[in-house]
Amino acid sequence: xxxxxxxxxxxxxxxxxxxxxxxxxxxxxxxxxxxxxxxxxxxxxxxxxxxxxxxxxxxxxxxxxxxxxxxxxxxxxxxxxxxxxxxxxxxxxxxxxxxxxxxxxxxxxxxxxxxxxxxxxxxxxxxxxxxxxxxxxxxxxxxxxxxxxxxxxxxxxxxxxxxxxxxxxxxxxxxxxxxxxxxxxxxxxxxxxxxxxxxxxxxxxxxxxxxxxxxxxxxxxxxxxxxxxxxxxxxxxxxxxxxxxxxxxxxxxxxxxxxxxxxxxxxxxxxxxxxxxxxxxxxxxxxxxxxxxxxxxxxxxxxxxxxxxxxxxxxxxxxxxxxxxxxxxxxxxxxxxxxxxxxxxxxxxxxxxxxxxxxxxxxxxxxxxxxxxxxxxxxxxxxxxxxxxxxxxxxxxxxxxxxxxxxxxxxxxxxxxxxxxxxxxxxxxxxxxxxxxxxxxxxxxxxxxxxxxxxxxxxxxxxxxxxxxxxxxxxxxxxxxxxx
Length: 484
Hints:
Blueprint: H1 2-46, H2 114-120, E1 145-146, E2 156-157, H3 172-182, H4 189-200, H5 206-233, E3 236-246, E4 249-257, E5 262-267, H6 272-278, E6 287-290, E7 303-306, H7 308-321, H8 326-347, H9 355-375, H10 393-403, H11 405-408, H12 410-413, H13 422-438, H14 444-462, H15 467-475
Parallel strand pairs: 3-6, 6-7
Antiparallel strand pairs: 1-2, 3-4, 4-5
């Protein structure tokens, strides 16, 4: 009997030990998952515009701390400020001012010899004050009728200019200013109404302002279509997208541009469905520079170039959040060395870099990727679970660098390809400003009108034409000035 009791007790202890072992194993897995979650949350908290793809507007008032190792700009060896030979700009002295005000000593104000002393006095110093006055000019167009023309022996009546259609209307200068305020100035319709009504003392209603913007967009539609046709035939384009709010929902502004032209369009979708709706990438056969967004790789006829500035920011994030990842710093230094050699070749007006540097960078690239995989091995395959194994963000970046090596290094093998995608980001920047200032667009039509005008203004700016002049020319029927 005691023996049976002992055996049952031992069995009970063994079962209890098995249950505890299983419980400890489950707790260890939970702790592992929680540690991973904590690490990911800390990484998310540490993200900013300097170490990730987040825009600078997301930093808010809490700007990222200064870190010399994180900056994408490297020291040039030059002193700060303007360099020798730089053409400075300043307020020029007006030789013939409109108004001259002499200033004598206060004792001379009521002196009987004031005028005679002023004629004999010398000017010690002259200072110029430049100011502006706002004047409203009203032009009355009168239709003249000659009832009995002595030459033709009949009644002759004049005709109004083509743009004069109403009894009272606003001129092209005022219309151009209204459109400039609302578009490139990112000023809302209500604020535009308040500013211009108070400055010009003209009762510009919000509806009138909206109609001015709509008319300008309608005038620019043929020019907008011409820009679209040009973009489809270019050899190299920059692509990017950003979100904005339309009627309380998130829509996506897609940008296709180069150093001479800007094309902006809005779609409900961000990915390849939105890109297909625009229609440029599906038929494009040149080089597209982008940020490695997965949707761009769905176009096999396009030759892809990855923005290395995005890669540098991701590498900065890994260097800060995962100090044990030594390969990240090595790869960052490699990209900067490649850029330095490329810039030197361009400065020397060369068509390509030397074979020595190409072979050196190619070998170094493979060595760093090999080291990265050693530090971050691929997850083991299991029979039970289906689908791809979950990878860390670090491992995902490593796989991307390996799979898209040709696109990452295209800027060094083809000197016509830029190092970054900053062109597209600059062309999209005003969208974020407009969204932040005005809040949202009321409708898709209003958003597209804004993008039509901004495409034209962005293209005009690249051709050295300021926004006000470009808008005024478009209202005068000369929008094709940007193609001259």
